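Chain A, query sequence.
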Amino acid sequence: MKFPELPLRPLSVSPSMMCADPFALREVVDVFAAGEVEWLHIDIMDGRYVPNFTLGPDYCRALSRASRIPLDIHLMVEEADRHADLFAEFAGARVSFHPETVRQPVRLIERIRANGQGSAIALDPSMTLESVAHLLPLVDQVVVMTVNPGYAGQKLLPFCLEKIRQCREWFAKEGLATDIEVDGNVSWAHIPAMVMAGANVLVAGTSSLFVNGRVRPADLGRFRAVVDEARKSPVGEQSILAR
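Chain A, predicted structure.
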């Protein structure tokens, strides 16, 4: 069985900045600026929703001063509505949150939009698309987690690829120009499957772009080439799950 042909959205690369060596941050950001990377992915972790702590508003300010690349802020936190306004100053950013962490996700989506930012919801592997269907028409992007959130370098959960395909079919059916971001083990081997399933924003981390916290311009070019090739060649479901 092959995935159906679906409308293609512009492809964006969103490197995961938690994977960057802090002592090489200027070098890494310069590579991304020269390579016209579309987003910088920032994981905000509070040690509660996930057992890890990473980054914060000060880090985002430093990146905003160092680069004009917009921020792709992922609130991987409990009570995301208490944290969202800490990032309100980053106009043009896109802010995603896990809807199960707040009582009134619609209100938070509206508040993010009022801050002049793109709104997004992130789906933990345990969350079904049906459980958030009422929110899908309200957001600019859905983030499909393909690993358990919290740490870089985890193995892909293959059943999450089907969720990407379901998202793209749902948006195509509804006529919505909504981005689908994939976050988790976006490796050289898995990029084709993710792209063919329908993802058009790829969070690149240690399984592809980052090696020892640094990025080579050649690897960024390779990343885009792998994506372009995947968009040209249909991939069957069985070969996707076998990767």
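The radius of gyration is 17 Å. Confidence is low (pLDDT under 50) at residues 235-243.
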